[in-house]
Amino acid sequence: MTNRYAVVLAAGQGTRMKSKLYKVLHPVMGKPMVQHVVDQLNSLALEKVITVVGYGADKVQDVLGEESHFVLQKEQLGTGHAVLQAEELLKDQEGTTIVVCGDTPLLTAETLEALLDHHDNEKAKATVLTAKAPDPTGYGRVVRNNINTVERIVEHKDANEQELTIDEINTGTYCFDNKALFEALQQVSNNNAQGEYYLPDVIEILKQDNEKIGAFQIMNMDETIGVNDRVALAQAEKLMKKRINEQHMRNGVTIIDPDHTYIAPNVQIASDVVIEPGCVLKGETSIGSDAVIGPYTEISDCVIGSETVIRQSVAKNSDIGDRVQIGPFAHIRPEAKIADEVKIGNFVEIKKSTLDQNSKVSHLSYIGDAEVGKRVNIGCGTITVNYDGENKYLTKIEDDAFVGCNSNLIAPVTIGKGAYVAAGSTINKEVPEEALSIARARQTNKEDYVKKIKNGNKE
Ligand code: UD1
Ligand code: CA
Which of 19, 131, 224, 326 could join 310 in a cystine, given CB atoms 3.0 to 4.6 angstroms apart? Predict the structure, then answer.
């Protein structure tokens, strides 16, 4: 096999997005478009992936990090000029170079592999990935000659009326013989409607040198849509969502309403999980088998065990064990560690706290900066008073403790093993093991008080 290289074009501003965010960084299902492209390339065995950066170069480099080499295109003079920036790194190499646009997030490694195979089998100098477009507006059109081979590509803005009727489009993805590519690029001019150095002009240049040009037509155009504006972005989002959801369903996940379920590309879901409608699963989340998530639940960067049920809740950056019950309407904030069989009920907020096995916080509580042991029961309305306006302090509630309803636990404080806290207490000192602590005003009953006032008023 010859050496293979890839160049990703990602230097454009993306004027049509009308956005502060550089085009290729716009996320599709939570992952920047250019990252989708580079991830697919990296799953092929390539010698080198080079991303051409320009607008927002620093940000694009930050996102891709080690996954790509970078070259800078200082001025955005066109896609041909963009590829030329990789000349220093590539021009002496023998082999095949794939060029991909950073704004085609749906392109798959399988298609790129098929394109490479076609290119090799045909022994072509250049092969274009083409597609039949139901609406080719905006795309470059593939002009074929009378024996049906590709002659050249004409940009929408340069096309005549007859060329505009062509529905076979240039997807912006190509394979080139590396040396032929850089030689032909020297001859590309900017004499066209946009005054740009067009990469597709390389096709016509090679063709005129009697080199073999291949075309590989993809059956499903969906995979190759180029995202130039937010209408296309929404289309890409919809297609990516469908692709991801179908993959999970084929792997044994039940998704009740796939049209209204958003699962980011890196989320892992075990079999027999049920995802109810309206869920958004983001980041590096993983979900164990037989869990039930939703309806209407948002989870980011969480590890969730098996048989856990999370309903109408929000959870972020936390570890949640097996057979845990959460919600409805709970908020699990970063750095929560929730062990197996814990129950967290409605209107409970947990932040940076550990809750050990079998503990329960069933209603209306705030647990922040706390260490809660095993089999602890935290009554309705309990609050860990963790913040004095400057610092945060730890609340420890040891195994088997029982905290009565509406207690304030003023941190730093420890409730010892098996201790009881009476309902309505405000605790600011340690409660020893097995003790009962009552920290509230005593009840005084004033007999006949009401009667007296009422009589008084009549007089
Ligand atoms: C391009 C193709 C068109 C094809 C379409 C497929 C050209 C001239 N046209 O058009 O034939 O149908 O893609 O989606 O190539 N870029 C740079 N530097 C530049 C200009 C662009 O890095 O100087 C990058 C952009 O960031 C983008 C990619 O190249 O990721 C494509 O540029 P874009 O302006 O989107 O080209 P299209 O008009 O879509
Ligand atoms: Ca484009």
Answer: 326
